Every structure is written in C-alpha cells, then in structure tokens.
Amino acid sequence: QLPLVESGGGSVQAGGSLRLSCPAFGYAYSWCMGWFRQAPGKEREAVASVDSDGKTRYADLVNGRFTISKAENTVYLQMNSLKPEDTAMYYCAASKPKWQLQPTSLACTALEMYNYWGQGTQVTVSS
Hints:
It is built from no helices and ten strands.
C-alpha cells in the first residue's frame, strides 16, 4: 500500500472552492474512505465519507457544500461555498476492511474505524 497523501489545500476567500485529492492505491479492501478535519483547539471530526457500497455521508456543517467521490483509486473532496469556519487541516483516511468492523457500526463516522491516515493538507478560508 502506498501512503495516503492529500493534496489540493490552500488559501481561498469565503465563497471560493477547492478540490482535495487523495490517491489510494492498495486500499481496495477498506470499507470506508473518509475526509476528516481538525481545527486548532478542536477534536478531529468526520467531514465526509464513502463506503464500498457507494453510500456517502456528510457532516451537517458541510452538507450541500461538499461532495466526496472516488474514481480510479483516488478519493476527492470537492468543497464549494467555503466559509471561514471550514479552516482546518484536512485528512484523508482509509478504514479497516468490513470484516474487521462491527456489523452494526458501518456508518464510516468513527475515528477508530480508520487505520490509515494521510499527513494532512491545510485549508484556510478568509473572509
């Protein structure tokens, strides 16, 4: 497995857009691919995820503005209508295989489901 390496972060003004990319070669057995973010003084939180059935999930604060997708072993996060409160370090993550997860805990929102993490890419949104 190649390391997860996010790219696409940067500094934009409020209302702008960014597209984050995460090549994920060798993670075909991961049940979830997810994007997380962590702002200073805050807990790391799930932003968006997609499971192997194609179901996507979004945090309430980004729903309608962000879109997660995957294609050809790459996971993307399209971020539109960015707000200053979106400023954070964004992380790409891959979860354990489905057979290593609790059958009732497959919602791709729990930190402990993920065992591979990228180094993070900074997103800064100014007003």
